[in-house]
Design brief:
Elements (H helix, E strand, L loop, with lengths): L2 H6 L13 H9 L35 E6 L5 E4 H5 L4 E8 L22 E10 H7 L8 E12 L2 E10 H4 L5 E6 L2 E2 L9 E3 L12 E7 L6 H4 L3 E2 L8 E2 L6 E4 L4 E2 L6 E3 L2 E10 L5 E7 L7 E2 L1 E2 L9 E9 L2 E11 L21 E7 L1
Parallel strand pairs: 1-10, 15-22
Antiparallel strand pairs: 1-2, 3-4, 4-7, 5-6, 5-10, 7-8, 7-9, 11-12, 13-16, 14-15, 16-20, 17-18, 17-21, 19-20, 21-22
The protein binds ligand MTE and molybdenum atom.
Molybdenum atom binds next to loops.
């Protein structure tokens, strides 16, 4: 049995009747979701973009910031911010989603950041492509993984660590992978990785390492915590599981009408209305969005809006002739590989649960 499996045994699943704990609430108060009404915007204003920070936000001085590229390379590189921003500049609109989105809707509930549906946001990231820099560092034969290390530090299930995530070399050399220094036309805000973060379009959030300080090429598989223990789809503690990689399809609806304060149930006037939202997938292009007004028993097609880019969410709209009564609205996306499941796909750490969104609505 490998250490991968043993460390995973500490992942805790709540008892069936166990309420969200103060520890989970503390995480949820720090790491906020995107208010679903922000689905109206193509680009999420930075303060409304979801936020996930494993440890503390490190405050990094841009003047003394350096990035090193080393390891299994011929000529290691060190860059300051002026040298990085002087390199070719690329902009790309990318939807980011936390791999734990949907976790709190699993039964039993894996104990961690308790996201419902809202751990998502879309930004226009500007930066310089990573691949040319890796090539300039003189990659040696036999490179396997590229490890990205942030400035933040903590312990997680007993393991002290810098936040580190590795990408297979062929993914790290992808033409759309960026070292980003701007979000929606402004320098990165502290919470989103200032001064420089990694952006890997199409991959779940954990890959997009913030407060980047070091890039290390390895001639073997990275066995660090965030790759080998966290972010795996495990059936149980003995299952090493498959790694979590690209974003599965999901559609979300902008809540119609107005909310009840405590339950967030929507109140809508009877009549014809247009429901709107966004859909995305990092795995394959979204080809269809469907709406259900009867809790997922029957579905009708929504109209898809224009694409903002391969890895940006796409708007959808659907007309609903709302008649007085109580409803559960559902929406689901289908990409070229398949549709979102109506029922959740359970795993030990609550990763990649893209079950359909459900919204309680009263039509008056
Ligand atoms: N250095 C560092 N990078 C990180 C994290 C972190 O805790 N430390 N969290 C990751 C996770 S799990 C997610 S979902 C995204 C969240 O990005 P955002 O807060 O900019 O939305 O950042 C990723 N990058
Ligand atoms: Mo995440």
């Amino acid at each position: 049995m490998t250490s991968t499996v043993r460390l995973g045994e500490q992942a805790r699943v709540a008892a069936l009747d166990e309420a969200v704990s103060l520890d989970e609430l503390r995480l949820a108060a720090r790491n906020h979701g995107m208010p679903l009404e922000a689905l109206r915007d193509d680009l999420t204003p930075p303060g409304l973009h979801y936020l996930l920070v494993h440890y503390d936000i490190p405050f990094v001085d841009p003047a003394s910031w350096r990035l090193t590229i080393g390891g299994h390379v011929y000529s290691p590189i060190e860059l300051d911010l002026a040298a990085l921003t002087a390199r070719p500049r690329v902009e790309t609109v990318v939807t980011l989603e936390c791999a734990g989105n949907g976790r709190a809707r699993l039964l039993p509930r894996p104990v961690s950041q308790p996201w419902l549906d809202e751990a998502v946001g879309t930004a226009r990231w500007a930066g310089t492509p990573l691949a040319p820099l890796l090539r300039e560092s003189g990659l040696l034969d036999g490179a396997v993984d590229v490890v990205f290390t942030g400035h933040d530090h903590g312990t997680e299930r007993g393991v002290e660590q810098d936040y580190q995530r590795a990408l297979p070399i062929e993914e790290a050399l992808g033409s759309d992978v960026l070292l980003a220094y701007e979000m929606n036309g402004a320098p990165l805000p502290p919470q989103h990785g200032a001064p420089v973060r990694l952006v890997v379009p199409g991959w779940y959030g954990m890959t997009h390492v913030k407060w980047l300080r070091d890039i290390t090429v390895l001639a073997s598989r990275f066995t660090g915590y965030q790759n080998a223990v966290a972010y795996r789809l495990r059936a149980d503690a003995d299952d090493p599981g498959e790694p979590v990689t690209r974003i599965l399809p999901r559609a979300l609806m902008m809540p119609p009408g107005f909310p009840d304060f405590m339950t967030r149930r929507r109140i809508v006037d009877a009549g014809s209305l247009v429901l709107r939202g966004r859909a995305w997938s990092g795995r394959a292009p979204v080809v269809r969005v469907e709406l259900s007004t009867d809790g997922g028993q029957s579905w009708t097609d929504a109209a898809l809006g224009e694409s903002l880019g391969r890895h940006a969410w796409r708007s959808w709209s659907a007309r609903w002739d709302a008649i007085r009564g109580e409803y559960e609205l559902c929406v689901r996306a289908t990409d070229e590989v398949g549709a979102q499941p109506v029922d959740p796909l359970w795993n030990l750490q609550g990763m990649a649960n893209n079950m359909v969104q459900r919204m309680a609505v009263t039509v008056r």
